[in-house]
UniProtKB/TrEMBL annotation, chains A, B:
<dbReference type="InterPro" id="IPR026888">
    <property type="entry name" value="AcetylCoA_hyd_C"/>
</dbReference>
<dbReference type="InterPro" id="IPR046433">
    <property type="entry name" value="ActCoA_hydro"/>
</dbReference>
<feature type="domain" description="Acetyl-CoA hydrolase/transferase N-terminal">
    <location>
        <begin position="13"/>
        <end position="227"/>
    </location>
</feature>
<dbReference type="Pfam" id="PF02550">
    <property type="entry name" value="AcetylCoA_hydro"/>
</dbReference>
<feature type="domain" description="Acetyl-CoA hydrolase/transferase C-terminal">
    <location>
        <begin position="329"/>
        <end position="479"/>
    </location>
</feature>
<protein>
    <recommendedName>
        <fullName>Acetyl-CoA hydrolase</fullName>
        <ecNumber>3.1.2.1</ecNumber>
    </recommendedName>
</protein>
<comment type="similarity">
    <text>Belongs to the acetyl-CoA hydrolase/transferase family.</text>
</comment>
<keyword id="KW-0378">Hydrolase</keyword>
<dbReference type="InterPro" id="IPR003702">
    <property type="entry name" value="ActCoA_hydro_N"/>
</dbReference>
<dbReference type="GO" id="GO:0006083">
    <property type="term" value="P:acetate metabolic process"/>
</dbReference>
<dbReference type="GO" id="GO:0008775">
    <property type="term" value="F:acetate CoA-transferase activity"/>
</dbReference>
<keyword id="KW-0963">Cytoplasm</keyword>
<dbReference type="InterPro" id="IPR038460">
    <property type="entry name" value="AcetylCoA_hyd_C_sf"/>
</dbReference>
<dbReference type="GO" id="GO:0003986">
    <property type="term" value="F:acetyl-CoA hydrolase activity"/>
</dbReference>
<dbReference type="Pfam" id="PF13336">
    <property type="entry name" value="AcetylCoA_hyd_C"/>
</dbReference>
<dbReference type="InterPro" id="IPR037171">
    <property type="entry name" value="NagB/RpiA_transferase-like"/>
</dbReference>
<dbReference type="GO" id="GO:0005737">
    <property type="term" value="C:cytoplasm"/>
</dbReference>
Length: 528, 528
């Protein structure tokens, strides 16, 4: 495929053709301090021409730090937009997720005020009016495939928060992407009212369609239509390695066991799989695995989802975003368009990540944390408890509401000086995004700890036994032993911790480059 | 009311009359190690005769520690049952919530293995087969008001997990409570299938009824029918004091503000209010307040709910449990039966606490934590991070899914030696049950911190300013200042913490009886 149709053929609402202009022509609408809503979700379906033109304008006119915006988007977007904006000091507030070296640096340096929110909550909370003084936003920038005669927006590779945005923005700029095929028909848009007038989502399987393919838009709000030929800058993932293959293997074995026990149907339940290399490998494992007739109900579809379809095991996939790599993902997708198109449903974030369908369908939720602790709390957001990576994303939406709530991580990672300097199993997480009340299973390349029905101390022993890296097993066991002893002596032994020493591994990493420590019995007096 | 009908009139399934026996006659069915499911939710609707007979049996025969059971109940039950069982060392495992001095002592001493789970998850997870080896339970003990001709169970003051229990137990013992009126007709029982065959809950307002008043039960499973005249031993709450009145006042002001801003309807949205004195006072405030035509969609109805109805502001209340005090709550309720009966709907825990209706209806969630931290994480379960109180209960079910997610607490509590020795606002919670991604507002008697849309450091400043006790404002500000400075120097300033000192207040409390500390700038070297 290479001829994707003209702008004129894509814009079927002919009155809008008078609003066609170049990206540069929209710069006049922007001024510092505005609240902006964009389409996009992970590097998929985000506006490109206008943000890039604005960045060029700021650069050319030395407006760094003088033209800052508050940026609200369903999730992260491509680095050529938000990350360049961060580099040019064009972002004041950023909600609820982000990706990019510069933007992370800006957040951690305190220049960018970011808040990360469960994505499924964010989508509804903006519609409730929670993020700006009057609940309104100045400009929405929305990438579309096409515009229907009655001004329905056919979106591109993601739905994100567009359904909410078109009601919350006073002005809308449309980017029509003619650099790729039209995704018209892939989306299932269901417009919700606010409480107390909300109705059930009548989704009873991953493939249910409950709405229309279009986001209805008031044509009078559209102030500009810009043609774009830029494609999504999706990341390619690392190939499967021994660690991710071992993790995928443990998960396959566990599924087989659960089917035998009668706790999972033969075709499992709808799968949710987070973003990243391990999640990608797990889906790769399922593509080759023994289970067939599977369905996916998730947030983001990544490259291995194509293998999953190709292998014949996957019937249908529902997501908020089709987030393939720029190469080889999208070219492969476009070359086999007919094979995939009808099997994919893209939904608004407020539905893909809503507790209602996730719980009703009984999703199997699988996500990767930064670290987990022995009692099964998980840190998904802040390295060392203080440094923001990307945000919580949708992990909580799925882990709280799924049928099985699973987290997978390597047991250890390299520090600068020690190949296993960072243990991903710690006495106490330095930041907690998912609690012990949420998780059913923890998986590392070492094994799978099935925590269902276990009390805290039993969980701790199981996690250390099954999941900790051999370099850390003894020291974690020693910590637990001493914590149990010292706490029991005070009659507070339900979930033993030593608050003068719980972060010793983290502090040692910061100071000495490794989490390997000894002498847990040395008490520290912090009192006065 | 004093004549509540005979056992014969209550048991309309006449074939069951042959199974009527004394509680003592059921002892033969019990043996150590069994998995038991009980009706009950908070001290409401739990079996009494059989558990008390079993306890007497253990005591009389010196079987302490030799007759231990695994006890799975919707939530806590009356102290005369589970707490006495704990005293007699009759409990091995206890899920997912409990109340009582002895049972808490047993858990903290490590004799009783307890796990606390979001109650809404627990109800579904037992039906998934997650808590026992084969997913089955030996005996269910269920309190009912009546049994219909076709063996439908009309429950009493709570629904709890009975709808799940009758399918999971091999044997069922029924207690028919003739010591109080029959609650037949108050319950709305909807039997769910497991995924992937689950259907939507068609609840669109707090008062929606979607099922029948009865739990269908296989009569062949019923091995005994015992008459009981014992009433629920509900606790009375402390009268409203200045602190809880001030908290209620801040919440009323906030609601008024939100209505003005167009973010809440004039009759608010369905209210959820946690268990305890502050929650009780908030409902008391609403009973006297300016808002009318209100609805409640919650987990537990407490005494002030009667004031709320009497004041005329409350239309309807949906809950899992009618948990009134033994005196004056229940006598008042029984004396005004007609006034209240039709306005109350009792639902199964798996529906009262399900994310689906909570989010659809847009509940206003209000709960009390043990402590909150400056970044808006909350501890609901473990004092000092290690000592179990009751469990997380349903707080997470509502706080994650509500329209507004609010937590209220006194700003400080007395320690043994200092009237304000415990600050309920700390640098970092010693246990985290609700995360910064969940909470919208924190309220103490000092004020209300509206955290919506605030980045972590802005949240911290707001919480200290609005919520901290005056005795702690300076020291929390000082901690934040030093944490910001030290973290920024390392470029990790998104959510600043000092891991060598974050628990200094907690450690000082344990050692010196107060959280009042100084000298945050003194670093501690934990490394080797």
């Amino acid at each position: 495929m290479s001829d994707f149709g003209t702008l004129e053929s894509r814009v079927r609402r002919k009155s809008l053709l008078s609003k066609v202009c170049k990206a540069e022509d929209t710069i006049k609408y922007f001024q510092a301090g505005q609240n902006l809503l964009w389409s996009g979700f992970t590097p998929a379906g985000y506006p490109k021409e206008v943000p890039i033109a604005l960045a060029n304008h700021v650069k050319a006119n030395n407006l760094q730090g003088k033209m800052k915006f508050n940026l609200f988007i369903g999730a992260s977007v491509g680095a050529e937009t938000e990350n360049v904006w961060a580099e040019l000091d064009m972002i004041d507030r950023r909600w609820p997720y982000q990706t990019g070296k510069n933007i992370a640096a800006g957040i951690n340096a305190g220049r960018i005020r970011m808040g990360d929110k469960h994505l499924g909550l964010f989508a509804q909370d903006i519609s409730y009016g929670f993020y700006t003084e009057n609940g309104r936003y100045d400009i929405g920038i929305i990438e579309v495939s096409a515009i229907t005669e009655d001004c329905g927006l056919a979106l591109t590779t993601s739905c994100g928060i567009v359904a909410e945005a078109i009601n919350l923005c006073d002005k809308i700029i449309i980017e029509v992407n003619t650099g790729q095929p039209s995704f018209e028909g892939m989306h299932d848009i269901h417009m919700q009212q606010k409480p107390p007038h909300r109705a059930p989502f009548l989704i009873t399987e991953a493939g249910s369609r409950i709405g229309t393919p279009y986001v209805p838009c008031d044509p009078d709000k559209i102030i500009a239509v810009v043609e774009s030929k830029r494609r999504d800058k999706g990341r390619a993932f690392a190939d499967e390695d021994d660690t991710s293959a071992a993790i995928a293997g443990h998960i396959m074995d566990f599924f087989t066991h659960e089917i035998k026990k009668g706790r999972l149907p033969e075709n499992l339940l709808p799968l949710q799989s987070g973003v990243g290399s391990i999640a990608n490998a797990v889906i790769g494992g399922l593509a080759k695995g023994p289970f067939s007739d599977l369905t996916v109900f998730t947030e983001v579809l990544q490259d291995t989802m194509l293998d999953f379809f190709d292998g014949g095991n996957l019937k249908v996939a529902s997501a908020c975003s089709l987030s393939l790599s720029e190469d080889p993902g999208f070219p492969r997708f476009f070359d086999n368009w007919e094979k995939y198109f009808d099997k994919i449903i893209l939904r608004p974030l407020s539905i893909s990540n809503a507790p209602e369908p996730i719980r009703r369908l009984g999703c199997i939720a699988m996500n990767t944390p930064v670290e987990i602790d022995i009692f099964a709390h998980a840190n998904s957001t802040l390295v060392g408890g203080t440094r923001m990576i990307n945000g919580i994303g949708g992990s909580g939406d799925y882990l709280r509401n799924g049928y099985l709530k699973m987290m997978h991580t390597p047991s250890a990672r390299p520090s600068k000086t020690d190949p296993t300097g960072i243990s991903c199993v710690v006495p106490h997480c330095s930041h907690i995004d998912h609690t012990e009340h949420d998780l059913d299973c923890v998986i590392t390349e070492q094994g799978l700890a099935d925590l269902r029905g276990l009390a805290p101390k039993d969980r701790a022993r199981k996690i250390i036994e099954k999941c900790a890296h051999p370099d850390y097993k003894d020291q974690l066991t020693e910590y637990l032993k001493i914590a149990e002893k010292e706490c029991l002596a005070k009659g507070v032994g339900h979930e033993p911790q030593l608050w003068d020493r719980a972060f010793k591994m983290h502090l040692n990493l910061a100071q000495n480059g490794t989490m390997k420590v000894k002498n847990w019995d040395v008490k520290v007096d912090l009192c006065e």
